[in-house]
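Troubleshooting log. The previous run stalled partway through. Resubmitting the same two chains, unchanged.
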Amino acid sequence: MNRMVPAVSADVPIVLVFSGHDPTGGAGLVADSEAIAACGGWAMTIPTALTVQNCRNVQAVAPVSGSQIRAMANALEDLPVAAIKVGLIASIDSLLAVMEIIRQRPGVPVIVDPVLKASGGAELSDAELVDTFCELLLPQVDIVTPNRYELARLAGPDSTDDTQRATALLHRGCQAVLVTGTDDPVPGVAVSHVMHTLHRPHGDRQWQWPRLAGSYHGSGCTLAAALAARLAIGEGVVSACEQAQAFTWQALKRGWQPGKDQYLPRRLWQLPNTSFTIPFTAV
Amino acid sequence: MNRMVPAVSADVPIVLVFSGHDPTGGAGLVADSEAIAACGGWAMTIPTALTVQNCRNVQAVAPVSGSQIRAMANALEDLPVAAIKVGLIASIDSLLAVMEIIRQRPGVPVIVDPVLKASGGAELSDAELVDTFCELLLPQVDIVTPNRYELARLAGPDSTDDTQRATALLHRGCQAVLVTGTDDPVPGVAVSHVMHTLHRPHGDRQWQWPRLAGSYHGSGCTLAAALAARLAIGEGVVSACEQAQAFTWQALKRGWQPGKDQYLPRRLWQLPNTSFTIPFTAV
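Second attempt completed without errors. Output:
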């Protein structure tokens, strides 16, 4: 018997993802999977919500129940997880389930993209959910990746600038805040550029990159998932933030526009356009 | 103002996918998305069911309602679709919704992977669902991709060999049947090889390829999704079948084993293991 043995490589770092599902593939758990694969990890995805949406806006969000989320995650409990990425959380019930699973994986870096609003403008969260998110989830988070709108909502009305707002989040107990300045430009930054800022207790770090024209569907998911994967493969925080931004910028730059609405990031642009070798015989 | 314009390439063929979601990423809609991307298309995925599973077996299947499936698909109605791929259908309600959407896209090739049983052995379908599938969906299908077990269940007890069974399916109105001989070897084929057969009204075509050791989680999803993508990019049926098999074989050969259970296909093996170029300035 001449059986071939496949290559065994058990060293693909698993990123456990809690995200909504977006049928367009621009955002949500499919987007996360792509970004994580392209950045060297393997995504295992637990849907937190099913959404009805297209490349214009989100029409409906149906949260997945906490008990379903727990069951899906518990079935994977034997597997090693190198990072956890949290995206859309659409109910307190599902938030509590996600937190419970995070607590079962102590020491695993947790990256949270606080999805409060769709890029088309639809609100995806209410005040009670935001409060619970800040009180209970933030203290367990290694890096949270809000845009400036989300930062302001999470920090509340008492802070007056981004640094104060980020500091408020750090005081909640999260380890780092990566604020993206794409949608709502940072004051003082040229309109031709975008500035992202990493806030940590011992100091800030900033990156500026050329602004891309157009509106994108899934840029926040892409950034946070790429960041989770880079941490999962063992990169340090600053390098992981840098690589995740570079990856996201490249994927957006190659974005494509189905119809006339938002662009979809092309996260797998590095795939060759190829035919596959045929190791078998047509008979 | 110096704004960069992203590349616009509206020519990525969209494959509309109806599949279950598998948290492991080995099978289901994430697997489909990867295979479709690697074969030149863009997947838009409508979940038909959420599943609780790991790399051993499926523990639970929760069908998504027909009304949710319709809403998700209707939100995408403006977009051109180049192929439709159908995987796990876990209820008659969702089957009827999928059929309705297929009818709204006349002329689009429909590829159906009849997922009746998980690769770990769990039954995913009952007799009533199989009957409804054969009566109502099969006549709308361009290519159905059963393994030998699924072929026998779909064809019923009256046929005695694969050719008769495939002919019974062709008589139901589907255009082609690609029977995979991996799980349940074809009589007369050496155990070191696997034979797949494409049955069409005007004749058969067969391929033999070296058998891989190990058990895989998601090989059927991978094959059918790759086939849908190759048809979506304009390949003919025989060439698309050949390319989809070659792609699947390569992805399985590079499979990896998280834990001690089934291997997961690595469909994105062509991605370089790379760092990303940084087109911006750290400040």
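Takeaways: Helices of chain A lie at 28-38, 66-74, 92-103, 127-137, 148-155, 162-171, 219-232, 237-253. The longest strand of chain A covers residues 42-53.
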